[in-house]
Write a structure and sequence with these properties.
CATH class of the largest domain in chain A: Mainly Alpha
Shape of chain B: extended
Distance between the termini of chain B: 70 Å
CATH class of the largest domain in chain B: Mainly Alpha
Strand content of chain A: under 5%
Structural class of chain B: mainly alpha
Number of helices of chain B: 13
Largest interface: A-B, 63 and 50 residues
Number of strands of chain A: 0
Structural class of chain A: mainly alpha
Shape of chain A: flat
CATH topology of the largest domain in chain A: Rna Polymerase Sigma Factor, Chain: A
Distance between the termini of chain A: 48 Å
Number of strands of chain B: 0
Radius of gyration of chain A: 20 Å
CATH architecture of the largest domain in chain A: Orthogonal Bundle
Strand content of chain B: under 5%
CATH architecture of the largest domain in chain B: Alpha Horseshoe
Helix content of chain B: over 70%
CATH topology of the largest domain in chain B: Serine Threonine Protein Phosphatase 5, Tetratricopeptide repeat
Number of helices of chain A: 8
Largest sheet of chain B: none
Order of helices and strands of chain A: HHHHHHHH
Number of domains of chain A: 2
CATH superfamily of the largest domain in chain B: Tetratricopeptide repeat domain
Oligomer: heterodimer
Order of helices and strands of chain B: HHHHHHHHHHHHH
Helix content of chain A: over 70%
CATH superfamily of the largest domain in chain A: RNA polymerase sigma factor, region 2, helix turn helix motif
């Protein structure tokens, strides 16, 4: 499969492709990160997962539509930035935690919010959930969603999107 | 359309950054004065961000599931080294050693692979200053430049940056312009810009040091590169470790 087909396949929701890419480069990347950045296995695995999520996001958001290099070079490029970001944020967290424990509190609040969002989405109903996930997570345009979900036209999709979001908000507000 | 749905649409579009300036001002005004509107704003923000983060969390979970069935390649690498009967290879080894000595002798000045080091460490700096807006064909040059940058159309981004720099020499514009030059292998051009940023700039200093050090490496100007790498190591920045590794390789 060429790079164009890979990107198009991932964009169209073929999860098998992203899994295959994940498996194909995983070991090689972990060994490389260990060699050049002295990462242990846990750090290298974390970085690899972060870079794969970033790769997926770049495709879904339309930031990556065509690869000018091969896929491995592109992934390693993201990986180099991710390892630096990860180490920078770890260093920041360390110095922050020495001064206060607000960070832990913030993390708990954030986790609580995420759990509420997940619960609200589960109670929302499959059709609305799918529409909102396509828009806010997969970054599909209204026109693309209209075609994928076979709605009448873009106005219908847009209207439904706001109705679903409004409904989700009501459920979210009622979850304590 | 119901009043609350209108508000919801307004908030959603505000969060996406696609409202006109006057509409943005209306939202910001209402956020100050209208507590109900503010509560809706906070909920929509949490929900839309939450959907995105949940999706990423699911993807990470999927990767962890895949990992559960895979080994640790760092351990496997050590395990994979097998016992070898070296006596079988002594003749070949002698020829190989003789060959290696000749190569080392004739190329003692070109042992450092400048290109190799550059390739191992160069990764273009992410756009962290101007978020690309979905569905907006902005007429503003700065948005155009970063839209090209985010889609890795560096030649197109460079042209727009050049246009902006005719009137506006803001440091981050210069820095990202240098990035596009490096991507296009115009290292002399990048060197000029990055040296300028380091001599008089206040922002993007450590990033400029890092990328200029790599540029020097690529141009085989080792002494200049050493000085910047040492500075990065002394500063203890996030580039320190990588800088140390490059120093080992060029020494």
């Amino acid at each position: 499969m060429d790079n164009g087909s890979l990107i198009a396949g991932i964009k169209n929701g073929n999860d098998k492709i992203i899994e295959d890419i994940y498996l194909k480069y995983r070991d090689e990347f972990i060994v490389w990160l260990n060699k050049y950045y002295k990462s242990d296995f846990d750090e290298a695995s974390d970085v690899y997962q972060l870079l794969m999520v970033q790769f997926y996001e770049n495709i879904m958001s339309g930031r990556l539509v065509e690869l000018t290099s091969d896929i491995k070079t592109y992934l390693y490029g993201i990986g180099k930035n991710k390892i630096r970001e990860l180490r920078e944020s770890s260093a920041r967290e360390l110095s922050f935690n020495l001064e206060s424990d607000i960070s832990t509190e913030e993390v708990l609040i954030q986790e609580g919010k995420m759990n509420r969002v997940e619960q609200a989405l589960d109670e929302l109903g499959e059709a609305c959930k799918r529409l909102l996930e396509l828009y806010y997570y997969q970054k599909r345009s209204v026109a693309e969603i209209t075609v994928t979900l076979e709605y009448k036209n873009a106005d219908t999709t847009k209207n439904l999107k706001y109705k679903c979001l409004g409904r989700l908000r009501k459920i979210y507000a009622n979850i304590v | 359309m119901e009043e609350s749905q209108k508000d919801l649409e307004l908030i959603d579009r505000y969060l996406e950054g696609v409202l006109a300036e006057e509409e943005q001002a209306v939202v910001e005004q209402r956020l100050q004065e209208d507590t109900e509107f503010k509560a809706m704003f906070e909920d929509i923000k949490s929900l839309t961000k939450g959907i995105e983060e949940l999706g990423n969390a699911k993807l990470k979970r999927k990767f962890k599931e895949l990992d559960a069935n895979l080994g640790n390649p760092l351990k496997d690498k050590k395990v994979a080294v097998k016992e070898v009967n070296w006596t079988r290879y002594i003749g070949w080894a002698a020829v190989l050693v003789a060959g290696l000595f000749s190569i080392i002798y004739f190329s003692s000045r070109s042992q450092i692979s400048h290109e190799g080091i550059y390739e191992d460490y160069f990764a273009i700096y992410d756009n962290v200053v101007v978020p690309t807006k979905r569905g907006v064909d902005s007429l503003e040059l700065i948005n155009q430049a970063f839209a090209h940058y985010d889609t890795r159309e560096y030649a197109a981004a460079a042209l727009v940056f050049e246009e902006i720099l005719k009137k506006d020499k803001t440091e981050y514009i210069q820095f990202y312009y240098a990035m596009t030059l490096m991507e296009q292998q115009d290292w002399e051009g990048a060197k000029l810009i990055l040296e300028g940023l380091l001599s008089g700039g206040e922002n993007f200093i450590r990033q400029s040091k890092w990328y200029l050090a790599l540029t020097y490496i690529r141009l085989k100007e080792e002494e200049q590169s050493r000085s910047l790498l040492n500075s990065l190591i002394e500063d203890g920045t996030s580039y320190a470790e990588a800088a140390g590794e490059i120093m080992e390789r060029i020494n």
